[in-house]
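Researcher: Structure prediction, please.
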Amino acid sequence: MSAGTNTCRVLLIAGCLTFPFSVVRADTNTPTAVTVPAASDADRFFTQYAKAVQLVRQNGRREASVIMDLLWRNLGSSPWFEIALLKHAELNEVLNARVALEDYDVLRKRIENAPYFQGTTDRAAVFRAALLGSTMRGTDRIRLQRIRDALEVYNTRYNQYPESLAKLAIFNYIDMEDIHNSEGRLFHYTPTGQRFTPAISYHMYTIEPLVPEPFFVTSPKLDGTTQLDDKTKKYAALIRLPGRMDPHRVFEDQTLEGYFVAAVAAGGAIVCTPERVLVLVAPE
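Model: Predicted structure follows.
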């Protein structure tokens, strides 16, 4: 390549593009290296999560699961590693319950042992409680679905429902662990619709509701984020609450009507309740 010709190399490293290149000056012929800074874990999380959300909206849940699987395996810092793992688990509750349970097990162990969650900062405590609550709720949803499936198999075999969940487990239609919630309590199950001939049998039942956790939320809604200054690299978020006309401008570590604003970055915000971790993506 002749002198005076610009050269460019493009390197793909861990999903991030950097562009080291040299520019030949006409006067000194001295190359000057320019490097684009690597994206932070927060930026990588929101970029990939936004792609997964678009795929889910287009009924591409399996493709979204692949994105989230690669994401959590390639993030190195807490709590972004754990949030990505949580969203991968929630996405797989319907696609592959076994994988989702494995994710929840890994997540629970991370919450118990990772140094970040043993810290004394308010943010670490909030993330710990919200992630643990989300993990327990997710595990319970999977177990409740297994109970419902087992009840239908039992009903197909005997044309009635069992008088207890323990009987369902004793007859090997489900594991004993699955009829208990994450705290070790039996799920509330009540057989109804009694018939008395030739013997008492039950043809309906009630059980605790199974409320799915959406992969992404539309309320509260993130209207956008703004960088506060170049020095701190911190951001503020404009969040619109349900039933409110105007958005609120909030910062990290603030509480907004029951939501704790745990993190704000260029691509979105994380808000928590004691039992949920909600990812709000900035509009395109």
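Model: Residues 122-158 form the longest helix (37 residues).
Researcher: Thanks, that helps.
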